[in-house]
Amino acid sequence: MRVITGTARGRRLKELEGMETRPTTDRVKEGMFSILQFDIEGRRVLDLFAGTGQLGIECLSRGAASAVFVDRRADAVRLIRENLEATGLSAGARVVPGDSMAYLQSLQERFDLIFLDPPYDTGLLERALEHIMRFDILAPHGIIVAEHPAGRVLPAALPPYRLRRTYRYGRIGLSVYRRDANQNSEEGRP
Q1: What percentage of the chain has pLDDT greater than the value 90?
Q2: Rounded CA gap, 70 and 61, in Å?
Q3: Counting C-beta atoms within 10 Å of the first and last residue's C-beta, which end of the chain has fewer, N or C?
Q4: What is the pTM of this model?
């Protein structure tokens, strides 16, 4: 696992032991960042269910303004910090130990780009999408990238959100949601 491009290009990232964490493969990550290449610089990023932190680190390497990494596992939190230190990207990062859903429920800020890659078959992806849309924590013109099994049908988007497209990389699907700027749903904000 490596950083694809930017200031930390080519740097290897450490991975977690065991099968509980499933890092995004290089092929899927390259496809994902090809989709997002013009939507990263200067953006505020949330890497929810961060695992190794590779998605947020890739964004920081490509010029994102900041990235928040959230994971419940203590070993993942340590590894994210080590990977940030190894890439020299700690200054723009905040690592939050704890439950991702509890973090979303207490959130008082908006993000431009949100990555969702929870463990499959836990229902966390659907719950996170529902919460993000209901409480409107994505900035206008913001993007959510959800990684999931290719055959899974994700929930419908609630206005001002819309499902832009779902990409398929073998057995992995990437669904890209966007938030329109023409509506403001402040009534659901925490």
Answers
A1: 78
A2: 18
A3: C
A4: 0.91
